[in-house]
Amino acid sequence: MSANSAAFDHLTGFRWRQGDPSLANMEARLYDLGVLRSVLEEAVEIAVADARAEGVTWAKIGDALGVTHQAVIKRYRKAVVADA
Description:
84 residues; mainly alpha
């Protein structure tokens, strides 16, 4: 099993709002995905700040996240500075 398929299995198993009688199943799924996206983004911000604090370069962080170092700097520089 690849990391992607394992992560996807965890994602599809997350059921926070599904089963809520006030929401259609697809609405509940979207709420669940929104919560996961928010939590994941916070976790990435923390990991980037921790990596920078340990001296990991922006280029290596970008490689790990699958984006350019310029994109990582643009997105996370303020979060890293705020934690410093």
